[in-house]
Structure formats: C-alpha cells, structure tokens
Amino acid sequence: MSDNPRIAIIGAGPVGFEAALLCASRKVNFAWFERGNPGQHLLMWGHLATHGPFGSLVSKAGMEALQSASLTEWLPAMDSPATGKSWVDGYLFPLSETPALSGKLRAGVDVIGAARSDVLREDDDRSGNFVLHLRESSGESAIEVPAVIDCTGVHAQPRPMGRGGISAPGEAACRDRICYIIEDILGADRPKYAGKSIVVVGAGVSAATAVLLLAELAREEQATWVTWLFRRDETMPVKRRPRDPLAGRDAIAAAANHIAARGTGNIECHGGSWVDSIRPGQNNQGLLVSAVRGGESRVFEADRVVSLCGYQPSRQFTRELRLPMDPVLDLPPTGLPSDAGISPGPPAIEPRWYSIGSKSYGRATDFSVATGYKQAALVLAREFDSRPKGWLRAS
Ligand SMILES: Cc1cc2nc3c(=O)[nH]c(=O)nc-3n(C[C@H](O)[C@H](O)[C@H](O)COP(=O)(O)OP(=O)(O)OC[C@H]3O[C@@H](n4cnc5c(N)ncnc54)[C@H](O)[C@@H]3O)c2cc1C
Q1: Which atom belonging to ligand 1 lies closest to the Cα atom of 152?
Q2: Pick from 181, 234, 303, 309: most CB atoms within 10 A?
Q3: What confidence score (pLDDT) does residue 392 get?
C-alpha cells in the first residue's frame, strides 16, 4: 500500500465501520476519523433496544472479519433486538480489534472543515484533492485526500422545538434543563425524572419512546407528572408505517398513540400545540414552557423538558463544498447514481465526495443500516473498480 491515503472516512458509526472494512479488504490505504469514540451516537441511546433484531444490524463483511479473528463471543443474539450499547460492545468494538482495522481509527479527531484544496467553491475546477481540517486535543492539522466518505450521521444535530421548527425564545438560555436525547429514565438518569414534572415535545418514535418510559416511571413514582406537547392535532400523533419492517418501532408508535388517545393516569396530552417560549421559573426554579394552540396560549411548569423533534445533518463543516441539499428533507447528495432507496438526495456536483449512512436520509426517519452498508459497497466499487468512461461525473 502507498503511504498516502486514497480515501478518508469521517465517522465511526456502523456505516463508517463498514466503509473501513471494505477499504481494508481491498487493501486500499485509508484515513479514518471519529470525533468521539467508536459508536459514539449509538452510545447516546445505549440503554435502549434496537427496533429490529440484531441480525439486521450487522453486515456480511463485519461478520466475516469477526469470525476470522475469532472475536464473535460478545455478539448479542441475532434473532432478537440488541441495545445500542451491546451493538457497540459486541460488534463495533471487536471489529476495531480485528487485524484489518486495528490501529486504523483516529478517535477524538473532529473534522471541522472540508474543501477542495486550493480552489474556492466558486471555482469550476472540481478535480483536485480535498483538504480536511482536523481538531483534536493535541491541536489542529490538515490532511489532503483524493476522495471522502462522510458517514457523520445526524444525531449530533437535534432540531429545535419552537414554532415552525426554529428555536423557541429562551430555548438556548435554558439548555441546562432541556434534554435532546432519550436519557436512561428508568436507570441511571432516574433521579432527574422521578417525582418531577416533565414536558415532552415531539411525536416521532423517539418522543414516543420517552413518553412510554415516563409512563412506566409514573406508575412506580406517582408524583411524576408528564405533559406531552405535539404539533399534530390528532388523537394518534405518532405516524405508523404500513407493514413497518421494524416491529419494535411499530410497537412503540402504537403504544404511545394509545396513551394519546385514551390518556393514562399521570400523562396529559396537548395535540396541536407549538412551543412559543421557555423561561426559568421564579427564583430560577424549574421552567415555564409556554405553548400556543389554536391562538390560545398556555403555560406549563416543568422541572425538565425532553425535546425530541427529530435530527438533521450538519451543513457546518462542508459549507465550502458544492453539496446542494434537498430543500424539504435536507438530503445531501450521496455521490452515487440516483436511486430512491439507496441514494435519495439530489444529484452530486462535487465528484468523489460521498455522504452516506443516516446522514444521506437527512430529516427522513426511514433509514436502516442495511441501506448504509449497501451504499458503502457502491462507493468502494465506484472508486476502486475499473471506472467506466466519464466516471468523474458524479451521477
Ligand atoms: C432507540 C433506537 C433504535 C434504533 N434501532 C435501529 C434499528 O433497529 N435498525 C437501524 O438500522 N437503525 C436503528 N436506529 C438508528 C441507528 O442509530 C442508525 O441507523 C445508525 O446509527 C446509523 O449509523 P451511521 O454510521 O450512519 O451514523 P452514526 O451512528 O450516527 O455515526 C456517525 C458517527 O460520526 C461521528 N461524527 C459526527 N460528526 C463528525 C465530525 N465532524 N468529525 C468526526 N466524526 C464525526 C459521530 O461521533 C458518530 O460516531 C435506532 C436508533 C435509536 C435511537
């Protein structure tokens, strides 16, 4: 292998791992960066069950690498859901110890900027190397690479909870009492919730999961009070997919809709509500969440707010690239030929930059890692198999 990396991978979630495995199996020299630790985003919800069985979360390349290194003993059972943590401990971490990947990941390196080396976005020559600006605890540096696979996911960018999807006035100032992930409500984080007044905002599967956990907590700790605010003025606010392939996800949606429709002891539901503002309570105790519904304003007291209004891809570090986002769902171009399932975003105009994994689905919620694994294989084939004439055109 030559010393210079032929491609860089950003992110060490399941899809970044797959891209790295496929590079290693082709003996392609690659550089690989992760802002936190392997599986950082999965660990944000490590205590929760996956929506599908563990067997749907692994790839052929991953299983072969673990088997040939005799590192299969930590794998969770294939036919039932795992947890986010066991996905990392049983699959990603052992993969990082296989001969193919050992020592390859640079963890703790945040990619904070990306551009074409020595040309501006306005310049039409898009054939040169990329330059990546890296930040880690020891300092900053830059690296040049001919191609990049961006697998940075969406979980680091929660969408704000205010009207029309912008931040509510006061949301940033009250950040220390607002949570944008599903904490371990029944376990390690229980003291933040038990016996407290909690406002939950949103009606996706994440918000539904939080409401179900809080309902269980309220059965055990009866002073717990939950106010659930969501924008759809419907008794069944959580959208269900017809014939949802992820049975766990559909069960969560159905159970939360049951609560919204029928009510339950300590949970009050307010459909058709938008959060209007958030401010600290008297003497800085708790929060006052103001919500509008049909022109009427109402204030709810809360000790903590759980805001689960979805996630979105980062545009920040790629802003000097030509990466037009789909205007509705924030889908970036994958860099692969258009295909509604595999490559849902707009056509690429920045050759050899690939945005794959959950990032490629933007704000949409129907991504599954099996799609990310296929995308990684297609990128590798496109970059390193014999290139058809005109391959430099992105799609
Ligand atoms: C409760 C729950 C259950 C789920 N169940 C399933 C399921 O059954 N099946 C399924 O397919 N999906 C499931 N998911 C979704 C799953 O989390 C995603 O499919 C998966 O994480 C996508 O992997 P990814 O590699 O694309 O991105 P991520 O896992 O989000 O990884 C992105 C990585 O990039 C790193 N990163 C971000 N920005 C930078 C940067 N600038 N520089 C360096 N590194 C960076 C992050 O730290 C992170 O490690 C579930 C999610 C939840 C919350």
Answers
A1: 34
A2: 309
A3: 46
Q: Look at residue 159 in the predicted model and tell me its pLDDT.
A: 97
Instruction: Report the Cα–Cα distance between both ends of the chain, in Å, rounded.
Output: 29
Domain match, 176 and 266 both: yes
Domain that holds residue 302: 163-307
Query: How many CB atoms neighbour CB 214 within 10 A?
Result: 25
Q: What is the pLDDT of residue 387?
A: 58
Which of helix, strand or coil describes residue 87? helix
pLDDT at 231: 95
Q: 258 CA distance to ligand 1 centroid (A)?
A: 29
Burial track 77-104 (b if 16+ CB lie within 10 A, e otherwise):
eeeebbbbbbbbbbbbebbbebebbeeb
Ligand 1 closest atom vs CA 16:
25
Q: How many domains does the chain have?
A: 2
**Does any ligand 1 atom lie closer than 6 A to the CB of residue 368?**
yes
Query: Do residues 276 and 352 share a domain?
Result: no
Running along the chain, 395 residues long, what does each successive block of 10 average in pLDDT? 86 98 97 98 97 97 98 97 98 98 98 97 96 98 98 97 97 97 98 98 97 96 96 92 88 95 88 97 94 95 98 96 96 93 93 98 94 97 73 43
169 & 207 share domain: yes
Whether 364 and 252 share a structural domain: no
1 located within any domain: no
Same domain assignment for residues 273 and 150? no
Ligand 1 lined by 355 (C-beta under 6 Å): no
CB 111 less than 6 A from any atom of ligand 1: yes
Residues in the chain: 395
Identify which of 50, 79, 95 to mutate to test ligand 1's pocket (most ligand atoms within 8 A of the CB). 50
- In degrees, rounded to 5, the angle at the alpha carbon of residue 89 between the alpha carbons of residues 87 and 95 is 90
CATH number, domain containing residue 136: 3.50.50.60
